[in-house]
Write a structure and sequence with these properties.
Elements (H helix, E strand, L loop, with lengths): L12 E7 L2 E6 L10 H13 L7 E6 L10 H7 L3 H20 L4 E4 L3 E3 L1 H7 L3 E4 L4 E3 L2 H4 L7 H9 L1 H10 L3 E2 H7 L4 E2 L5 H12 L4 H15 L3 H15 L6 H8 L11
Parallel strand pairs: 2-3, 3-4, 4-6, 5-7, 6-9
Antiparallel strand pairs: 1-2, 7-8
The structure holds 3-methylmercaptopropionate-CoA (MMPA-CoA).
C-alpha cells in the first residue's frame, strides 16, 4: 500500500478507503474539537499532496465527534508564543495544505457538521463541494479572539460570499447556518434527511465514476483559470480541453451517446 493512503502512518487524521479509490479523511482530534495544530496541517499536506498519484479518486473530508473543526489550535498558538516570522510560516503551511486540496485535481467533498469556524471554515473552503446538515454552523471568530485570518479566508471565503459579508463575519462574529448558508454560497448542499456525511458519500460515489483526468481538470483547472485574465483563461481552457476531451478513455462514453445507449440529461422530477 502506498504510504500516502496508509492509515497507520497518520496520527491526527483517520483515513479509510470505502470503495475502490474513494477515501474518507477525518480530522481525528475530537477532544480538541479537531482544532488544527501544526501536526495536523503537515498530515493534510502529505495526504493531499500525494493523493492523486496514489490513485485516490475522490475524498470525503469530515471530522470525528460533533464538530467539523474549531479552527486554529489556539492553545498551541498561545503556548508557543510565536514570533511574526514563525506564525507567517505556520500560515504558509496552511496555504500549502489548502492549495494542495483546491488545485490537486482530486475531488473533495466536505461533510460539515457542528462548528465550521475560523480555520475550520478555511479548511472547508479548500474542498470543491460542501455539504451541511441541521447541526452545521459557520463563523469567523478571529475578530473576537484578537487575531486575523491566515489560512485563506480573505481569498476563498470572500470568493464564496463576497468580501463585505466576509468582513462582517470577522468583524462581528456573525454566524450563518441552514438554508441561508447555502443561499449565500458557503455550501452547495443541505441535507434535510440524514446527516451531511451520508449525502457527501452519495455525491462522492457519483463523482468517482467520472474519468480521473476529467476530474483532475475540473478540480484544478477551474481554480487556476479563475486566477488568470479572461484571455489567458480562454487560452488555457482550450489547452486543457484539447487534452481532456480527446483522452482515449472518453471514446467509449462518446460512442454510447452516439449509439443512443447513454443516459440523457433530463430535468429533476
Ligand atoms: C480548542 C479549540 C481551539 C476547542 N484550539 N483547543 N477558533 C475559535 O475561536 C473556536 C474556539 N472553540 C469554540 O468556540 C468551541 O470549543 C466549539 C464551539 C468549537 C466547541 O464547543 P464545546 O463546548 O463543544 O467544546 P469546548 O468545551 O469549548 O472545548 C473542548 C475542548 O476542545 C477544550 O479542551 P480541554 O483540553 O479543555 O478539554 C478546548 O480547549 C478545546 N478546543 N476549540 C484549541 N480552537 C491560520 S489563522 C486561523 C485563525 C482561526 O482559526 S481563529 C478561530 C479559532
Amino acid at each position: 500500500m502506498n504510504d500516502v493512503v496508509n492509515p497507520d502512518t497518520y496520527e491526527n487524521l483517520a483515513i479509510s478507503e470505502r470503495d475502490h479509490g474513494l477515501f474518507v479523511v477525518s480530522l481525528n482530534r475530537p477532544s480538541k474539537r479537531n482544532a488544527l495544530d501544526e501536526a495536523t496541517i503537515e498530515e493534510l499536506i502529505r495526504f493531499f499532496g500525494g493523493a492523486r498519484r496514489a490513485g485516490v479518486k475522490a475524498v470525503v473530508l469530515t471530522g470525528e465527534g460533533e464538530h467539523f473543526c474549531a479552527g486554529l489550535d489556539l492553545v498551541e498558538h498561545w503556548k508557543a508564543d510565536r514570533s511574526a516570522d514563525e506564525f507567517m510560516h505556520v500560515c504558509l503551511r496552511w496555504h500549502e495544505a489548502f492549495n494542495k486540496m483546491e488545485y490537486g485535481g482530486v475531488p473533495i467533498i466536505a461533510a460539515l457538521k457542528g462548528a465550521v469556524v475560523g480555520g475550520g471554515l478555511e479548511l472547508a473552503s479548500g474542498a470543491h463541494v460542501r455539504v451541511i446538515d441541521s447541526t452545521t454552523y459557520f463563523a469567523l471568530p478571529e475578530g473576537q479572539r484578537g487575531i486575523f485570518t491566515g489560512g485563506g479566508a480573505t481569498i476563498r471565503v470572500s470568493d464564496m460570499i463576497g468580501k463585505y459579508r466576509m468582513i462582517d463575519m470577522v468583524l462581528t462574529g456573525r454566524v450563518y447556518q441552514g438554508q441561508e448558508a447555502v443561499d449565500l454560497g458557503l455550501a452547495q448542499y443541505i441535507t434535510t434527511e440524514g446527516d451531511s456525511l451520508t449525502k457527501a458519500m452519495e455525491l462522492a460515489e457519483k463523482v468517482a465514476q467520472n474519468l480521473p483526468l476529467t476530474n483532475f481538470a475540473i478540480c484544478s483547472a477551474v481554480s487556476h483559470m479563475n486566477n488568470m485574465s479572461g484571455m489567458d483563461a480562454a487560452y488555457a481552457e482550450a489547452f486543457v480541453g484539447g487534452v481532456v476531451n480527446t483522452q482515449p478513455a472518453a471514446r467509449e462514453r462518446l460512442e454510447a451517446f452516439a449509439n443512443k445507449t447513454a443516459a440523457r440529461v433530463r430535468p429533476n422530477t
